[in-house]
Design goal:
Number of helices: 11
Order of helices and strands: HEHHEEEHEHHEHHHEHHEEEEE
Oligomer: single chain
């Protein structure tokens, strides 16, 4: 991205709120839709900080093909969040089950997610999180599990039973964490999921995100301006690029914010 374009993004009108998005493939594939659905309840234009990407891990660096990303907790998002102006903040956390198939134990995953929640609560963020789609995970047959494990997580050595037991443990851990930390935890419906049990069916995305983001409706009275003005579809005027990544081992950097949506919402991708 050239310097002129980056400078232009910083000159956008002042955002009315901040949206924090943490996740992996499901979030990455539906980013403008998720932002639009949250803004329907919380208003816009927004400052959006995202830590996502296919195969993203909450606690360890991850690699998909030739691209490597830092963990969500080690991303530059948190430094930017701490340095930002005070404004209403809304956070959505999803795709937490990836780390199971990277071989990490439930207590490690819980520590990483807890850390994220605590950082967000320091900013008085209203938090919505999706739990693992446990019904879909438990319903995976042995052959489907082996097929999708080898396709998406070729280094994983966990058996189906081991993966399911860890998923059940994380699922319960998140229920207890939500009760303790007082945030919204949304259970996922099996009919939303594709054949692999963890990724959303493409044609269900609008309906499911509409449902999930209704949990932000409790903030509508606080924002006072949101619903009727955010009824249009969000589209990229400029797609965001990662602030930091490695490609074939070579470090690449990009100034943030690097993305721009229809309503002049600015997006930083970490």
């Amino acid at each position: 991205m050239n310097q002129a374009k980056s400078t232009a993004l910083y000159r956008q009108p002042n955002p009315v709120n901040r949206i924090i998005l943490l996740g992996a493939s499901n979030l990455t594939l539906s980013l403008p839709l998720v932002i639009q659905q949250i803004q329907h309840h919380c208003g816009g234009p927004s400052e959006v900080l995202v830590a996502a990407g296919h195969g993203r891990s909450y606690g360890q660096s991850s690699q998909v093909l030739i691209r490597e990303l830092p963990s969500i907790i080690a991303s530059g998002l948190w430094t930017e969040l701490d340095a930002g102006e005070a404004r209403p903040t809304y956070a959505f956390l999803t795709d937490i089950g990836n780390d199971i198939l990277y071989g990490y134990l439930p207590h490690q995953i819980l520590q990483w997610v807890t850390w994220c929640v605590e950082q967000l609560q320091k900013q008085s963020a209203y938090i919505v999180m999706t739990n693992l789609p446990i019904v879909s995970i438990e319903s995976l047959s042995e052959w489907r599990y082996q097929l999708f494990r080898n396709l998406f997580y070729p280094s994983c050595q966990l058996s189906r039973n081991e993966a399911v037991e860890r998923a059940k443990a994380v699922h319960q851990d998140l229920i207890e964490l939500a009760a303790h930390k007082q945030f919204v935890l949304c259970e996922q419906k099996p009919e939303w999921m594709s054949a692999d049990g963890i990724h959303y069916a493409y044609w269900k995305r609008h309906t499911l995100y509409q449902h999930i983001c209704t949990h932000f409706c409790a903030t509508r009275d606080q924002s006072g301006f949101a619903a009727d003005k955010q009824s249009f579809s969000q589209h990229w005027q400029q797609r965001p690029r990662f602030a930091y990544k490695k490609v074939l081992g070579k470090e690449k950097h990009c100034l943030q914010p690097s993305g721009l949506l229809t309503d002049k919402t600015i997006v930083s991708l970490y």
